[in-house]
Amino acid sequence: METFDYKPQLNADHGKPTPFQRDTKIEQPGVGTMRLFGSSWKFKQHGESGTWVSELFPHISGAIDDIAVLNGMQTDNLAHAPACMQIHTGATNVVRPSIGAWLLYGLGTANQNLPGFITINPSLSGDGGSPQHFGSAFLPAIYQGTAVSLPDNPGANADIRYLRDKSFPLTRQRKQVDFLQRLNRRHIEATCEDAQLEGMIESFELAFRMQSEAPEILKLDGETESTRKLYGIGEGATDAFGRQCLLARRLAESGVRFIQVNSGGWDHHSRISSLLPKNAKSVDKPVAGLIQDLKARGMLDDTLLVWTGEFGRTPYEQDLTSGQGSIDSYGRGHNPFGFTTLMAGGGIKGGIVHGATDEYGYRAVRGKVHVHDLHATMLHQLGLDHERLTYRYAGRDFRLTDVYGQVVKEIL
Fold first, then answer.
1. Which of the chain's termini has less CB crowding within 10 Å, N or C?
2. Threshold 0.85, pTM exceeds
């Protein structure tokens, strides 16, 4: 209701008690009488499609005809850790392969000198962060994601730690790797199959090959000034996420199959009026720039973009000051019953809104899309049948969508 799900009735009834009851499973501090909390920002219709977009996203609104807005999203948990786990792996409380690992397992690599799955600046702890978001679980270890860090200082290039050993020439490194690999393979032959050791053997080979190509790919210096400006690089608020998005384009161009870009700090339980504009500004220009850049290079048709959080926010106020603060201190709680995901490119129909929440934005009521449906659709657009992409482990065939999931054909 702040971004892409326009709710004029919520604004009209601002301050009134909610006409619905809170789910009994939800316990949120600072929520008393459950008064409706309208949005502080205006909405306008944009593009030939006339899609409603908040004034918080002036750049994305200009690209809205390339975007499908899914307003009927649902998930199974309202806590960060399990909800984040589900959006990345399909499961809330058991260890499962991430969607990037499944995709790489299904499609294979398109570049022998780079990882097939890269995550940029992932959150490894805190509100929902975990290495499992890019892990391979029981899939072979070669399918796990490789974490790439972007330094905080403006304009800096990305970095993979220990990528190069400048004290040894490549010919000597090659001999060292070959010797180590012979020892590892001899150990496997003498004992038994070891998936972790096989994964290590593969990763050593990939790490050696990466030295020849990865450093150049990670450098953003060679991009034109107009391209850097398109992503908002060097412009303060947009610099960090802009560099992530530009690096994602370079990686996609180089054959990396699955790329995660990460933006944290959206958990606005308080001070949403001052904090949300900062978050929105940080991603607005970079996301629009990425779409425009992919389109100009002829890459948008076969590059699928998905932008989502792990759940939505409540349409009633959350006051963590217990009545001692002004309305400027209010925020919103977690809402798994209805939220928004954006999709673009990769055969997705742009300029449409699929699904809807109720008049207050609390629950999805039409065109419901569960996280399993989102995953099924993502795999489908990349040429994979989510029911047939399986891996046998512990006596059963596992898949990303478990026993659920329907492709959302209306947005294709």
1. C
2. yes
In a domain, 212, yes or no: no
360: containing domain? 8-158+220-411
State phi, psi for 127 to the nearest 5 degrees.
-70, 85
Q: How far apart are the first and last CA of the chain?
A: 25
Instruction: Report DSSP letters for 308-377, one per residue.
Output: E-SSEE-SB-B-TTTTSS-GGG-B--EE-SSEEEEEESTTPPPSEEE-EE-TTSSSEEES-EEHHHHHHH
- DSSP code at position 410: G
Name residue, tokens 């992409």.
Answer: 389
Phi, psi of 258 (to 5 degrees): -135, 125
3-state secondary structure (DSSP) of residue 45: strand
Q: How far apart are CA 238 and CA 251, in angstroms?
A: 20
Lookup: tokens for 171: 């010919």
70 falls within a domain? yes
In a domain, 214, yes or no: no
Task: Using alpha carbons, select from 27, 104, 88, 54 the residue that is nearest to residue 281.
Answer: 54
Give the total number of structural domains in the chain.
1
Indicate the helix (H) or strand (E) that contains 172: helix 170-190
Q: What angle do CA 269, 287, 69 make, to 5 degrees?
A: 70
Tens digits of residue pLDDT in 332-376: 999 999 999 999 999 999 999 999 999 999 999 999 999 999 999
Judged against a pLDDT cut of 70, whether residue 293 lies above it is answered with yes
Q: Distance (Å, rounded) from C-alpha 63 to C-alpha 77?
A: 31
